[in-house]
Automatic annotation (TrEMBL):
<keyword id="KW-0347">Helicase</keyword>
<protein>
    <recommendedName>
        <fullName>Ku domain-containing protein</fullName>
    </recommendedName>
</protein>
<dbReference type="GO" id="GO:0006310">
    <property type="term" value="P:DNA recombination"/>
</dbReference>
<feature type="region of interest" description="Disordered">
    <location>
        <begin position="1"/>
        <end position="24"/>
    </location>
</feature>
<keyword id="KW-0227">DNA damage</keyword>
<dbReference type="Pfam" id="PF03731">
    <property type="entry name" value="Ku_N"/>
</dbReference>
<dbReference type="InterPro" id="IPR016194">
    <property type="entry name" value="SPOC-like_C_dom_sf"/>
</dbReference>
<keyword id="KW-0233">DNA recombination</keyword>
<dbReference type="InterPro" id="IPR006164">
    <property type="entry name" value="DNA_bd_Ku70/Ku80"/>
</dbReference>
<dbReference type="GO" id="GO:0004386">
    <property type="term" value="F:helicase activity"/>
</dbReference>
<keyword id="KW-0067">ATP-binding</keyword>
<keyword id="KW-0378">Hydrolase</keyword>
<dbReference type="GO" id="GO:0016787">
    <property type="term" value="F:hydrolase activity"/>
</dbReference>
<dbReference type="InterPro" id="IPR006165">
    <property type="entry name" value="Ku70"/>
</dbReference>
<keyword id="KW-0238">DNA-binding</keyword>
<dbReference type="GO" id="GO:0000723">
    <property type="term" value="P:telomere maintenance"/>
</dbReference>
<dbReference type="InterPro" id="IPR005161">
    <property type="entry name" value="Ku_N"/>
</dbReference>
Length: 425
């Protein structure tokens, strides 16, 4: 049987439209926030027999390798490179200490290009003369460059919907306490406003991740500030720290793990009962490796070509402006359907998956597998849950939340609650 994970749940609609929808659903928008303070330009190792590479040099190499991977494997993803704690400023908000790096006619958040990779790989040679480095948060100053960087990154990710596009901010730094030189009420206010800025971005669907760089003699302490910034608590702090904090040569692998996200095939609604429905994501266990998308360029301007399609009436020769309709002959009568009506006709049920019951595993036969299987895991975006009275079958009130879904049902006169995610595992 031929494996086609790309078409596991594909319907009978137009193939081009399906490709566009799946491409948009798997699209990533990433902003690299790189700390450019003088501390990043110190040697990363203390041993004389090793090559004295700076933290900044390591980060540039890691981002360059990740851009090469993206331009080959996922050419439709969009990236932006932003430095903070810089002398020069270059951003649409005109915020101090933030420099958005770009080349040529490329937009600030756009697909990676060969020129971007080539110029960025050599940026260390001219960084001090063109952009410059400084300590952004100092005593006696109210400037908060980290706050400005988060604000600029959020503005760069403003286009696109979080329902179809994954938006992320990756922070690279070796300073675990950016407000260490500030004291008193000024420090408290800066920490509060910066964390609030990060929470506002996360509420808009933006994911903030940190790739910390440890000093040669000390471990990166996330509990000082960054644990609160990205929303970690307890054991999550120690589990989050990558091994790259001790070995800089593993930094590229750690970055690749953060960039290579699990790509869901499709999002489905799973109806457990008539009143309980959750959203689940499907992941293909086997996916073919395909080359990147070919981009056609104009031979004179070298700009990407955009294909447009128009429909012309056979009788009048005029361009058709109205949406296309489809028809079916029935008893010598033309029955017309719109695209929306046709999709409703082909809809079998209001939900993609419905729980019918439970059977032993030995009842599952090999010939029941019609298509390649997919891994199903609950999503934390949509949940419809009903609270039931202990002595009645009448719904009391709906319970819907982004995280921590609970399903309640009566057992005698007592209430029992179970995490809905654990039920589906």
């Amino acid at each position: 049987m031929d494996l086609d994970p790309e078409g596991i749940f594909r319907d009978d609609s137009d193939e081009d439209e399906d490709n566009v929808q799946e491409r948009e659903a798997n699209k990533d928008m990433v902003v690299y926030l790189v700390d450019a303070s003088p501390k990043m330009f110190t040697p990363a190792t203390t041993q004389d027999n090793e090559k004295q590479e700076t933290y900044f040099h390591t980060i540039v190499n890691c981002i360059t390798e990740s851009l090469k991977t993206q331009i080959i494997g996922r050419s439709y993803d969009e990236v932006a490179i932003c430095f903070f704690n810089t002398k020069e400023k270059k951003n649409l908000q005109d915020s101090a200490g933030v420099y958005v790096y770009n080349v040529g006619d490329r937009e600030q958040l756009d697909r990676p290009t060969a020129k971007l990779i080539k110029d960025f790989s050599c940026i260390e040679d001219s960084f001090m003369s063109t952009i410059g480095s400084r300590f952004g948060i100092t005593a006696g100053s109210r400037e908060n460059t980290l706050y400005n960087a988060l604000w600029v990154a959020q503005a760069l990710l403003r286009k696109g919907s979080v329902k179809t596009v994954s938006k992320r901010i990756l922070i690279f730094t070796n300073e675990d306490d950016p407000f260490g030189t500030v004291t008193g009420a000024v420090k408290t206010d800066m920490i509060r406003t910066t964390i609030q800025r990060a929470k506002d971005a996360q509420d808009l669907g933006l994911s903030i991740e940190l790739l910390p760089l440890s000093q040669p003699d000390e471990q990166f302490d996330m509990s000082l500030f960054y644990a609160d910034l990205i929303g970690l608590d307890g054991d999550e702090i120690t589990e989050y720290l990558p091994s790259a904090g001790d070995k800089l040569e593993d930094m590229a692998n750690q970055l690749r793990k953060r960039i290579m996200r699990k790509r869901r095939v499709k999002t489905l609604s799973f109806a457990i009962t008539n009143d309980v429905c959750i959203e689940v994501n499907t992941y293909a266990l086997v996916r073919p490796t395909t080359p990147g998308k070919i981009t056609w360029l104009d031979s004179l301007s070298n700009l990407p070509l955009k294909a447009e399609r128009s429909f012309i009436c056979n009788d009048t020769g005029a361009l058709l402006q109205d949406p296309q309709t489809r028809f079916q002959m029935y008893n010598d009568t033309i029955v017309k359907f719109s695209v929306l009506e046709l999709s409703e006709v082909k809809r079998v049920a209001s939900h993609h998956l419905r729980l019918l019951g439970f059977k032993p595993l030995d009842c599952l036969k090999d010939y029941h597998n019609l298509r390649p299987s997919a891994f199903i895991y609950p999503s934390d975006e949509v949940c419809t849950c009903i609270l039931w009275e202990s002595n009645s079958t009448t719904a009391r009130s709906p319970c819907c939340s982004r995280r921590g879904y609970f399903l309640w049902w009566p057992v005698g006169t007592a209430w029992h609650a179970h995490d809905l995610s654990s039920i589906l595992r």
